[in-house]
Amino acid sequence: MNDFVGTGTLVRLALRRDRVLIPIWIVVFVISAAGSAKASIDLYSDKAALVEAARTSNASPALVSLYGRIFDESSLGEVSLFKLTAFGALLVGLLAAMLVVRHTRSEEESGRLELLSAGVLGRYAALTAALIVSASTVIVIGLVTALSLVGSGLDTKGSFAFGLMWAATGLAFAGVGAVTAQVTESARAANGLTAIVLGVAYVLRAIGDSSSDGSTQWVSWLSPIGWGQQVRPYAGDRFVVLLVPLVFLAVLIAAATALIRRRDLGAGLVRPRPGPPRAAKSLRSPLALAWRLHRGSFIAWGFAFLLLGLLVGNIASNVDGFVTSDSAKEMVQKLGGVEGITDAFLATEMGVMGLLASAFGIQAALRLRSEESALRAEPLLATGVTRSRWLASHVLIALLGTGALILVAGLGSGISSGASLGNMGRQVPRMLAASAVQLPAIWLVTALVVVLFGFAPRLVTGGWVLYGVFLLIGQFGEIFNLPQWMINLSPYGHTPRLPGGDFSVTPVIWLTAIAAALTLAGFATFRRRDIG
Q: Taking the CB of residue 200, how many other CB atoms lie within 10 A of it?
């Protein structure tokens, strides 16, 4: 039998399953790039202000580590998109890898691929179909992003270099996902390995970019994200560098196909370690078990939030030099909703932290559905554990976990900005308050996933769709002059802009009350439906 037979059928099945998620994320990436370009074109009409902003960025080790170096300080396109060059490529790579894992290892773990293999299905069909879907997605993201940047007024050649850079980085990490899917028996473990590779790649890029004397710049070439930066969109447009991630992809595909022949369907190259015959006392409650399941990802997220908080606080001390023109200051103040330029920056970045913390809340709440689908929930519920206790265990981890993450980010930014500005005693409590007011909106988004799980579990991934919509409205609603009623649909739009802005308790109470009502509705509907 042909090893690739059935590939077309699996491609159509995957596209049908992701017919909502893929378009949403394409729109998110495209509008993010176009919105950044449009805002920057309005900000930097003055050439001197543009060059000054670029030089200030390159002079800040924190900014260079976080976003990368600006190669051409007079390039409007590069300055407009420098925050999305490395970081955006990281997110595209994450999407590409997770799509591959979703349609390979997740299908094996659930047993669906075994059922399909009972028909006419080649050995490499699932991997090939997943790679086709993932590659098509990132290529569409790259091309449509390039067209949107041209439409925003940026240079055509540089715009296509930027879009293809995103696509090529995504293809490289699609290959990473193809390999990690062969290593473990769990989709979560495969995604975890992919996240580690992404993190290492980003750190290697940061080490190379941060080199002041050029002695460690070569380290960037060890990273697929660094390869993308070396395309240098709007600063030379070196299209030939795009061959490097394509060769990398070919090598990883060859490795993944070789690994497939060395394992059985459903098995991984690394066998899971058997646990002890009896559970420890620390695991003898639903909440303890839920914590054990979420512990690893929470610790990783916590470390990332602390690091981001410290970086944001350090950058805040230089933001006056980065934003020099009056129009630039007005735009940052508009996004942050406050008058002081430093406070505006901190308020804006804390809002971004709130968005990121929401992603953890969604992920933690979605674990309910994965436990149910994998038939691990039913044995627990067959004991003395009630439905409400089991559901509450994961919901508590999601709610308390997001609270801990955003407060860690606030603490880190308060310490860092306080040390830089010479007023730590004032900055720490201000940033903790700025982080705390993000919680009602974060909890509301998490509650939406809970109510979807209780009411229509098959639609629970719609939480990511709603998250993407809220992200677009919240981040680009004012830039694109959307009507106020549409901006009000996002819970993040009602969050007080702290530090420095006016605090109103009314939206905080309303958001918290709605989140509580949705959570209770999720509990009520879950108790009335069948498991599975």
A: 12
Q: What is the dihedral of CA 126, 128, 129, 131, to 10 degrees?
A: 120
Interatomic CA distance for residues 259 and 473, integer angstroms: 43
Distance CA 85, CA 203 (A): 15
Nearest by Cα to 431 from 323, 353, 355? 353
* Residue 209 pLDDT greater than 90, yes or no: no
Tokens 């009314």 sit on residue = 506
Q: Rounded to 10 degrees, what is the CA torsion of 92, 94, 96, 100?
A: 180
Region of 500 please: left (phi>0), alpha (psi -120 to 50) or beta.
Answer: left
The Cα 66–Cα 331 span in angstroms is 22
C-alpha 159/C-alpha 154 separation (Å) is 7
Per-residue pLDDT reduced to its tens digit, 78-108:
888 888 888 889 989 999 999 999 989 888 8
CA 137 from centre of chain = 16
- Per-residue pLDDT tens digits for 458-504: 888 888 888 888 877 766 666 566 677 777 788 888 888 888 777 88
Note the pTM of the prediction, 2 decimals. 0.79
* Joined tokens for residue 489: 């649909």
User: Residue 165: how many CA atoms within 13 Å on its side-chain side?
Assistant: 30
State the DSSP string of 286-348. Answer: HHHHHHHHHHHHHHHHHHHHHHHHHHHHHHHTTHHHH--SHHHHHHHHHHHTSSSHHHHHHHH
Measure Cα distances from 123 to 116, 195, 265 in Å.
11, 27, 9
- Over residues 323-369, the pLDDT tens digits come to 555 555 555 555 444 446 677 778 878 888 888 899 899 989 988 88
Burial 305-323 (b: 16+ CB within 10 A, else e): bbebbbbbbbbbbbbeebb
**Please, are residues 519 and 454 in contact by the beta-carbon 8 Å criterion?**
no
| Whole-angstrom distance, CA of residue 93 vs CA of residue 195 | 10
Write the DSSP string, 180-248: HHHH-S-HHHHHHHHHHHHHHHHHHHHHHHT-SSSTTGGGGGGSHHHHHHTT-TTTT--GGGGHHHHHH
CA atoms of 135 and 143, how far apart (whole Å): 12
> Secondary structure of the chain: what % helix, strand, coil (to 5)?
75, 0, 25
d(Cα 349, Cα 313) in Å, to the nearest integer?
A: 10
DSSP string computed for 435-457: HHTTHHHHHHHHHHHHHHHHH-G
Rounded distance between C-alpha atoms, residue 359 and residue 406, angstroms: 12
The reply to whether omega before 499 is within 30° of 0 (cis) is: yes
C-alpha angle 111-112-113 in degrees, rounded to nearest 5 = 95
381-404 core/surface letters (b: 16 or more CB in 10 A; e: else):
eeeebebeebbbbbbebbbebbbb
